[in-house]
Write a structure and sequence with these properties.
Elements lengths: L4 H18 L26 H15 L4 H5 L4 E9 L5 E8 L5 H14 L7 E3 L2 E3 L1 E9 L11 H6 L5 E2 L18 H16 L4 H5 L4 E9 L5 E8 L5 H10 L7 E3 L2 E13 L5
Parallel strand pairs: 6-10
Antiparallel strand pairs: 1-2, 1-5, 3-4, 7-8, 7-10, 9-10
């Protein structure tokens, strides 16, 4: 079959348009966490953040359903969900970053994704006078002991942060030296943590002797002053590797603390540390 030049050009434009439509959604890691003007729920002023939190809490409460598995086991909890508010105000990628399981994460994701289905259009964030894709974090609370009509709203739960340890905060903790890297704090922190481990880690003699290698999963809390507290091993491999991983953690300098609603908070962090035998 022979295509005319006009038809070929039209087909090329059509395919190009389709491709742009498919790739229009901003990946989570490319959206900003902070902006000069924060995104706002429809009808709320950007400066009145409590309005946005309250409206979103109402939306979540009105649509949230307790998953069957969680209800059967009498399990509740909080799911932290991240989603992108695109430059045009529509909701893009949605992803749970803390999921207690039993279907809670899937249900929280479904509810946040309903904003797409219902075509809820936010007032987009702005940075230096330009609209930007924003990475928004929201807690979705499942409480079995509270009637559906009296479910607590997300905003009040976030406001009282004294003593609470977050698994995810609006601004996550950053490694020392990443003060100016708010927008790319993950990359800066990752590189500095890797550098610290490389320069500090010593392969235990017992592990070398027994040819033990693998990944140790460590956990620690960055407190409101940036100090590393409560270091522990969630999954170890023994032969001195677990103890060495803890030693490496305790040698880290103070971090820049995470914040929630502009206030420093304690944030729980997980860190995999790989022990790999040197090649002969």
């Amino acid at each position: 079959m022979k295509f005319s030049p006009v038809y070929t050009l039209f087909l090329a434009l059509l395919l190009s348009s389709a491709g742009n439509h498919i790739s229009a959604q901003t990946p989570l890691d490319e959206a900003v966490r902070r902006a000069d003007i924060s995104p706002a729920w429809p009808g709320c002023e950007p400066k009145l953040t409590e309005c946005t939190k309250s409206r979103m809490a109402d939306f979540i409460a009105a649509n949230l359903q307790m998953p069957t598995d969680a209800k059967a086991q009498g399990a509740g909890g909080v799911v932290m969900v991240e989603f992108v508010i695109e430059k045009n105000g529509t909701v893009g990628e949605v992803h749970p970053i803390h999921d207690p399981g039993l279907g809670l994460g899937a249900e929280a994701t479904r509810v946040i994704s309903l904003m797409k289905t219902k075509k809820i259009k936010w007032t987009p964030a702005e940075e230096e006078g330009k609209k930007v894709a924003f990475r928004y974090t929201v807690p979705v609370s499942f409480n079995l002991n509270t009637p559906e009509s009296d479910k607590p709203k997300a905003a009040p739960a976030v406001q009282d942060v004294s003593g609470q340890i977050f698994d995810a905060a609006e601004v996550m903790p950053r490694y020392a030296g990443c003060e100016q890297a708010v927008k790319d704090s993950f990359d800066c922190t990752f590189m500095k943590v890797v550098s610290h481990i490389k320069s500090t880690l010593k392969y235990p003699e017992e592990a070398l002797k027994n040819k033990v290698q693998g990944q140790v999963l460590a956990e620690f809390v960055v407190d409101t002053n940036g100090a590393i507290i409560n270091p522990s091993i969630k999954k170890g491999i023994g032969s001195g590797c677990d103890e060495e991983a803890l030693r490496v953690l305790t040698l880290m300098p103070a971090w820049i603390p995470g914040t929630q609603d502009g206030k420093p908070v304690k944030v729980r962090m997980k860190l995999p540390i790989l022990f790999q035998l040197p090649k002969e």
